[in-house]
């Protein structure tokens, strides 16, 4: 299929230009998430798993993408493809993260968990006035409350993947964007700039999906009913 005219606009837009200018890992992370979803939509679980493993090794923000890609593969290719994707993603992540974790476990905890959640001795600069951060600023109970809300949001998205798994690239990107948006809004420490990733996923999926890949529900239902009988004259 011919490339969408939206792609050059997407590349030149702030959601790509901002992380390209000020971030070290956010743009590669976004690219790996897009690659993983595209591979899952085309039925390539191994490639999707490798991309997801590399993304998770860069930043734990990519963890929800593993669940979304597995759900997409499961709905299109069956449970075996979904499990293969998850296993490959876990193996690649472990291969990239375990050496550092074994050598400096304390530093891994401080850099990967304590610092991003505002529990480190060094204050994180991610302090935009989003709901999770405002709650965490109220004291210890506020921090635990926002973590609980964050967990409930994750469970809600996971339940939606189980009950109604995505079947198209656009649906998968939308579900991942929803999960990431909830995570960024409810995280104890976050920036407004983090929301560029969900926007990028939504716009990219619509520019990359082939025309006619997302039929309407009305068309899909009418197609299942079969042809109408010819009128009797």
Automatic annotation (TrEMBL):
It comes from the Bacteria. The keyword Membrane applies. The keyword Transcription regulation does not apply. It holds the Pfam family GT87. InterPro entries: GT87. One of its GO terms (molecular function) is hexosyltransferase activity. Keywords: Cell membrane, Membrane, Transferase, Transmembrane, Transmembrane helix. It is a multi-pass membrane protein. It is found in: Cell membrane. Its main location: membrane. This is Membrane protein. Belongs to the glycosyltransferase 87 family. The chain crosses the membrane at residues 81-103, 141-163, 175-197. One of its GO terms (cellular component) is plasma membrane. It comes from Streptomyces katrae.
